[in-house]
Amino acid sequence: MRDLFTEIWESVRRNKLRTCLTGFAVSWGIFMLIVLLGAGNGLMNAFLRGGEGVATNTMKVYPGRTSKPYDGLKEGRRIELDDKDIELTSGKLFSQYVDDVVATVGTNAQVSYGKKYTSGYIEGNYPSRKDIDRIEVIRGRFLNDKDINESRKVVVLPQNMAENLLGGDGAVATGAQMGSLHLGAEGDGKKVDPGKLVGKYVKIGGLAWKVIGITKSDMSRNDNLFYAPFTTVKTVYNKGKAIDDLAFTFHGLNTEKENEAFEKEYRAAVNLYHRAAPDDERAVWIWNRFKQNLQMNKGTKILSIALWIIGLFTLLGGIVGVSNIMLITVKERTHEFGIRKAIGASPWDITKLIMAESVSITAIFGYVGMFLGMLACQLIDKTVGQSSVSIMDEKVAMLVNPFVGLDVALEATLVLIIAGTIAGFFPARKAAMVRPIEALRAE
Amino acid sequence: MLIELKDVNKTYNNGQPLHVLKGINLSIDSGEFVSIMGASGSGKSTLLNILGILDNYDTGEYHIDGRLIKNLTEKQAADYRNRMIGFIFQSFNLIGFKTAVENVELPLFYQGVNRHKRHELAMQYLDKLGLTDWAHHYPNEMSGGQKQRVAIARALITGPKILLADEPTGALDSKTSEEVMQLLSALNRDEGVTIIVVTHESGVANCTNKIVHIKDGIIGEIQDNRTHSASAFGTATIMK
């Protein structure tokens, strides 16, 4: 082994510049591969960050309008969900899959605190919706079972509504009244702590409701949406059987196909109850987070494959370079190989020499490239990774942990060794086939 | 008989077929010091290549020490060359980026002898040829005579059955040529090494004990030259 490396070193030493230039192409290829995969990972991590720690196996059902005439009824009819849909969902028909069914019901309402008031939508809700809807409570608590059972008059307000109600200055309340939302962060000067409202009573619909918690404002949803116990809202606003939407968690549906089959069956059952065509996809809307996640995973997988392909093609340039250089080396050393063969080198001895040189160049420069690539990932993390883009006032990190894992490093090592072998193969075969008498003649 | 050639034929097929060796019959015994003489184009180089298992022949038989050398795989041929034959070339054919001792070691490397042992052995052989001080010099730092002695050390290190020398003095001046030929004679006389020298110089041939004349692919006269009186230019020197 040591002899082999001595030989390689002797060969490389004689062609330093040439070896370095070729090696640079390999380094560059692997560098690009690592950076691309790192950045890709960062992007995907940023994508998926929101989904951490929430129940993913949930479906939501919203009412829609029929798009087909059915059962003597015209199309375009508005569907309203009600108690029966809850019973249907949690009933025997789907008990194999459905776990927990929760519904919401709500109405527009004005909230006032002292002299300040703001309008919003009061949504009667269940504790488990916190996970399903990814509601983030920043102060106090969310609804609990006791609130539901006792129909307590408690509310959970979003941050911006609480800030408006506490009102740094009067302008805020007016703004809210206009219906255009004024954000606390928008720089009215003083910042107020929305947590101060927890434990205080606000007036909604002439009744006093206790504020039990503050949620984080999320611009992706209606920001003037606030929560109260389902039972309370239903009674206070006399909603009867009607509900806004319903959501449920499920289990046992693991593939996209299974999910689609279930959705189809479920849709048919709900549609029939509302006298809509079983295959009418607009009568009720079904939003399946699990399926969405599956699709997202598929998307990230495709992205990752695409990045690998781009990286590998960049690397290919380097490999071709190495192969080229090895061919030149073989040509230059034909005479030497002739001598070696005359004194007893077998074809495999010669092949080994060239292959080992090719793999060594590829591997060493590849590792340099990999190391630099990982440094670059660190650099990206320190610069671009720290910046964020504002999407509807929500700060979204551009890249989260733009690094490659140990698995990628190992895979890249494997790629390098394979690449070096491929690069060395043809030159080595050429060298091995050199006939000693012809080689000795070559000078 | 150490070497036996029976009706060996060789034809090159490069466009027009060229019948180079037309039935060579030759026997060389162990411990002989033979020269093969002939003009260029006589087929002596081809004969040497066949003797050295660097090339194959079409028909006939070639035995070394009773072993038939025919249709060998490259690997076998390499192995036989390594163990049975030592080569000395006109242009020395040392590897330029290796020192003298590394060059001498090389055949042992292909036998898989470990570093330490082969280095020791190589130093012994260099010592024998008076090159101890030059062991760590590169070929381009040495004179022609020194280079050829390194090559001889390399040829001898495996203890081959046959030493094949292809115009061993072709690139040397007359004084060095004489030294090299004396060295070969001494090796043959004192250690009983079988040596075959291919040359077109009668002076060189005269140093050997037997001269095989080859002409147009056929062996002509086989001259007993134990008296070393064959040279047309006198017996005292190698004429250049």
Based on secondary structure, the structural category of chain A is: alpha+beta
Query: Quick one: overall form of chain A?
Result: elongated
Q: Provide the CATH superfamily of chain B.
A: P-loop containing nucleotide triphosphate hydrolases
Query: Quick one: CATH class of chain B?
Result: Alpha Beta
Summarize the helix and strand pattern of chain B as letters: EEEHEEHEHHHEHEHEE
Structural class of the helices, strands and pairings of chain B?
Answer: alpha/beta
Number of individual domains of chain B: 1
Low-confidence stretches of chain A: 169-189
Return the average pLDDT of chain B rounded to an integer. Answer: 89
Instruction: Assign the CATH topology of chain B.
Output: Rossmann fold
Q: What form of chain B results from the Cα inertia axes?
A: globular
- Please indicate the percent range of residues of chain A in DSSP E strands (runs of 2 or more): 15-25%
Kindly summarize this structure in a few lines.
The complex is a heterodimer of chains A (443) and B (240). Chain A is an alpha+beta fold.
What descriptive keywords fit this protein?
heterodimer, A: alpha+beta, 2 domains, two-stranded antiparallel sheet, 14 helices, elongated, B: 240 residues, alpha/beta, Rossmann fold
Blueprint of the fold:
The complex is a heterodimer of chains A (443) and B (240).
Chain A (H helix, E strand, L loop, with lengths): L1 H13 L1 H34 L8 E6 L19 H8 L7 E16 L2 E10 L3 H4 L4 E4 L4 H5 L4 E5 H8 L4 H8 L22 E4 L2 E9 L9 E5 H7 L8 E6 L5 H18 L10 E5 H44 L1 H9 L4 H36 L5 E4 L2 E4 L8 H27 L3 H6 L2
Parallel strand pairs in A: 3-8, 5-7
Antiparallel strand pairs in A: 1-9, 1-10, 2-3, 2-6, 2-9, 4-7, 6-7, 11-12
Helix pairs in contact in A: 1-12, 2-10, 2-12, 3-9, 10-11, 10-12, 10-13, 12-13
Chain B lengths: L2 E12 L1 E13 L4 E5 L6 H8 L7 E6 L2 E2 L5 H11 E4 L11 H10 L5 H14 L15 H13 L5 E5 L7 H18 L2 E6 L2 H5 L3 E6 L2 E7 L16
Parallel strand pairs in B: 3-8, 3-9, 6-7, 7-8
Antiparallel strand pairs in B: 1-2, 1-4, 4-5, 9-10
